[in-house]
Structures are given as structure tokens and as C-alpha cells.
Design a protein that fits this description.
It is built from 2 helices and no strands. The chain is mainly α. It has one domain. The model has no long low-confidence stretch (mean pLDDT 83).
């Protein structure tokens, strides 16, 4: 997981260096870290929404099961 993250960060730095010429390495690292932090936050939000949806589905299944008995 650490190697995958490091590889992703290096790829993003290379992408920013190619697209945004004239910046120094500190700027690229800062941009990538901001991207990485917001990307992780977005993933967490989606995961929580899926977990909430699964809980609601389980609750509905229990209600249906009770109604059928």
C-alpha cells in the first residue's frame, strides 16, 4: 500500500511538472499533497454513503421478512 501510494504521488508530481512548467519542486509536492488529501476525503465520503445504503437495505430486508412471516 505504501509503495502504491508513493508511486501514485511520483506519477502526479511528474504530471504536474509536465503541465505546469516554471514551478519548483516544493510547489509540485504541495499541489500533489493537496490533491492526495482531497482524493482520500472523497473516497471516504463515498465509502460512508455505500455503508449507509447497505444498512438501509438490511433494515428494509428485515422489515420485509417480518411482513412475510
Amino acid at each position: 500500500m505504501v509503495r502504491k501510494s508513493a508511486s501514485l504521488i511520483n506519477d502526479k508530481i511528474a504530471e504536474y511538472r509536465q503541465n505546469l512548467a516554471g514551478k519548483d519542486m516544493q510547489d509540485y509536492v504541495a499541489m500533489v499533497l493537496l490533491w492526495f488529501a482531497t482524493e482520500q476525503n472523497t473516497s471516504t465520503i463515498h465509502e460512508l454513503k455505500w455503508k449507509e445504503a447497505a444498512e438501509k437495505i438490511n433494515s428494509l430486508e428485515k422489515l420485509i421478512d417480518k411482513a412475510l412471516i
